[in-house]
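Before any further analysis, backbone shapes were mapped to integers, which produced the following:

***
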Amino acid sequence: MTFPFNAYLLAFGGAFATTLLTLPLWKRWCARTGLVDDPGHRKIHDAPIPLAGGLAVMTGLALPTVIAALTLILRHALRSTPAMATIPTAGAGLPLFDNTTQALLGYGLDKRSLELAAILCGAVGMLVVGLLDDRFELGPAVKFSSQFLVAALVAAGGARITLFIHSHIFSYAVTILWILTVINAFNFMDNMNGLCGGLGAIGALYFATLAAADGALLGFLPHNFPRARAFLGDSGSHLVGYLVAVLAILPHYYSSKHRNVAAVFLPLLILAVPLGDMVWVVLLRWRMGKPFYVGDNNHLSHRLTRRGLSRTAAVLVIWLAAAIFGGLAVIDWAEILLKR
């Protein structure tokens, strides 16, 4: 059964509005508590900028999710009570809360509750890791270990990659490696206004298309691009990378009725830009004898600006490249479906 479009519309709209409206509140909180990015080495801003993006994006994801879950639970409880069964519940006549949508969402919450709980807990955990890094500048070993634990939690919850190999050890290993890689790829790309958030939104959009949550990220972008009034910070870039990595895992690209193995590599095409940038920078730092985790100005965005593009133009070019690669993935997926 095809999942109803109105559920996606509700999730997108709720996340977008919540992030857009709560970000000013988080900006004030960050300014009051000193959670800001001060001007300094390799920084292009000349005044402290609140690191509120991750908190706002997390709010845009969590608040609508909690409200939707509570609404479904309440409506189910009311309909299960004989005395209340004939009383219309709030929103019963609205298309966003029709019986089909409610049944499918309820089924998902019931059958995949552990996996969903692990994903949400992982998102909170990744946000906390990023916040601690923003505040205290965690060492590479501590940050990597924390990322590893969060990725392991998600794998233990059931969101795992198999690549057709029936081995729990392999499944855990490749899932953790994928999540760690994508998180750090997006963390590397968080070097210009709107770049990381925009790439995350593009990736989320294409994964949503393939799967048939980019609302929160789009709600953040007006505060970050082209002129930044708030930054994602490590909390936001960690969260964006984590969410995109998990979105890539959740769709079923392969089944007994669909035997085109190449389909499982579509996420690599969707994320070609951030992953390609990370590989390039890591190899370059290795050749220069520098630690791969020490930042520099050799990312794709920096190379474009050195060739004469403005920072805004460089970000738009990279967004366009990501959109093209993602579009190719969707076209490939559509061709695969037509051949089934």
About this structure: The chain has one domain: 5-338.
